[in-house]
Specification:
This protein is mainly β. It has two domains: 13-70 and 172-204, OB fold (Dihydrolipoamide Acetyltransferase, E2P), CATH 2.40.50.320; 71-170, no CATH class. The chain has one helix and twelve strands; from the N terminus they run H-E-E-E-E-E-E-E-E-E-E-E-E. The protein has one helix at 13-16, and strands at 33-43, 46-50, 56-72, 83-91, 94-103, 113-116, 122-134, 146-152, 155-161, 166-172, 183-190, 196-204. Strands 1, 2, 3, 4, 5, 6, 7, 8, 9, 10, 11 and 12 form a twelve-stranded mixed β-sheet that branches.
Length: 205
């Protein structure tokens, strides 16, 4: 699932919230509506965004909102000991990463596991990198191919990363990042009074 938007219009939360892509009754994304756009007016906890096609909508940050940031990374950032979430496509018995998100220590364990995604032969693996194999830099100085061993409670997966894999560094943020001009993607739950309460929010470049 593509998150670029970061993320994804509806396509946005895939990127913005990769760590929360999981299945089963414990899925924290159930009942949430994804959104993405550019922030306009901000008034306290409320903010208005302009989305695809010029549509506008108003959202309110929930008291328990989790705010994240994202920026581009490189294959060299995929070091042993990092907690990551990798979206991969299975082909010829191998998992090939289309994107990998590297999470901060405060998010270690979020969404841990190996689960199918919406698209055929596509999976999401959230876990700890226990091994990297391959050339991170080629002789010409470019990024080479790397094989990751990602472990999680109850299992492990081997995933191949190529120069085409999108690498994103996820960080923690706060409400001060929600300001006019900021590009955001997230997921909101509708309150009984109709207010769209944001539960997860990613602020990208």
């Amino acid at each position: 699932m593509r998150t670029r938007i970061l993320l994804l219009g509806a396509c946005a939360v895939g990127l913005a919230l990769p760590a929360f892509s999981q299945t089963g009754p414990a899925n924290p994304m159930l009942g949430l509506k994804p959104f993405a756009g550019t922030v306009g007016v901000v008034e306290g906890q409320d903010f208005r965004i302009t989305g695809p096609g010029g549509t506008t909508a108003t959202y309110r940050l929930a008291d328990s909102v989790r705010i994240m940031t994202s920026r581009s990374g490189a294959i060299a950032d995929l070091a042993a000991g990092k907690f990551v979430g990798c979206t991969a496509v299975e082909s010829h018995g191998r998992l090939h990463a289309t994107e990998c998100h590297i999470f901060p220590e405060s998010m270690r364990g979020v969404g841990e596991g190996h689960n199918p995604m919406g698209r055929p032969n596509t999976t999401m693996t959230n876990g700890n990198i226990t091994m990297t194999n391959g050339s991170v830099q080629t002789a010409a100085g470019g990024a080479g191919r790397v094989t990751l061993r990602i472990t999680y409670r109850g299992g492990a997966q081997t995933i191949e990363v190529s120069p085409r894999t999108r690498i994103t560094l996820i960080g923690t943020g706060d409400a001060s990042l929600v300001k006019p001009g900021a590009r955001v993607a997230g997921a909101a739950r509708t309150a009984p009074d109709g207010t769209a309460l944001v539960q997860f929010l990613n602020v990208g470049p």
